[in-house]
Amino acid sequence: MKLKRTLATIGATAAMTAGLIGFGTTAHAAIAGCTDYAIYYSGPANAWYTKVPTIGSQGTNFCTLRSGASGMQVYYLQDTLNYCYGQDLGEIDGKFGPKTAAALARVQKSLGLDPDGVYGPQTRDKLKWHWMTLNANNTCNTLYGAGAH
User: Fold this and answer.
1) Is the pLDDT of residue 2 over 50?
2) pLDDT: is 24 or 74 the higher one?
3) Lowest-pLDDT range of 50-54, 88-92, 119-123
4) In the chain, which residue ranges form alpha helices assigned H by DSSP?
5) pLDDT in the model for residue 13
6) Residues 26-45, mean pLDDT to the nearest whole number
7) Residue 143 near residue 124, CB atoms below 8 Å
8) Nearest 5°: phi and psi at 36?
9) Is residue 143 a contact partner of residue 52, using CB atoms and an 8 Å limit?
10) Which long-range CB contacts under 8 A does 98-105 form with residues at least 24 apart?
11) If DSSP codes are grouped into helix, strand and coil, which group holds residue 100?
């Protein structure tokens, strides 16, 4: 019996090493979920601003959003999908449901990303976010393109 367990363990280890058995469907599995958002500023005198999903109100933006998530962090992602990419989500409600996942997958595909419908760091970096001013001016730009801080 001990020999069978040892052989099974060796076989399982070899299969995992060869990549035959996986423990997650995507690389996003190890990244924490976004729980809030932060305001990013750009332009002369920080005239432009956008709101980006983060962990905590001023935490890292190295996080994910997926089906079932809800809150203002989802709302601002939905706003960007609607405004900058013309995705008709209907009411922007802050709930990451099937419409949001499908819209995000379409945008990811257009950006050359894996269209998995999960928001993560690669999607964040490629998205053109909805930037606004207090004077109701609007534009779309990536965080890096806008020189966000």
Assistant:
1) no
2) 74
3) 88-92
4) 2-18, 72-85, 98-110, 121-126
5) 39
6) 86
7) yes
8) -160, -160
9) yes
10) 98/67, 100/67, 100/74, 101/66, 101/67, 103/78, 104/77
11) helix
**132 CB-near residues (< 8 Å, 6+ apart):** 48, 49, 50, 138
Q: Is the pLDDT of residue 38 over 90?
A: yes
- Give the tokens for residue 38: 């932060």
Kindly report the number of other CB atoms within 10 A of residue 26's CB atom: 14
Please name the residues in contact with 124: beta carbons below 8 A apart, sequence gap of 6 or more: 52, 53, 61, 143
Q: Which region among 25-39, 53-67, 96-110 has the lowest average model confidence (pLDDT)?
A: 25-39
The answer on pLDDT for 134 being more than 50 is yes
Burial pattern 45-66, b for ≥16 Cβ within 10 A else e, equals eeebbbbbbbbeeeeebebbbb
Averaged confidence pLDDT in the chain: 85
Q: How far is CA 70 from CA 14, 93, 117, in A?
A: 40, 9, 15
Question: CB-based contacts of 52: which residues, under 8 Å, 6+ apart?
Answer: 37, 38, 40, 61, 76, 124, 129, 143
- Write the DSSP symbol of residue 64: B
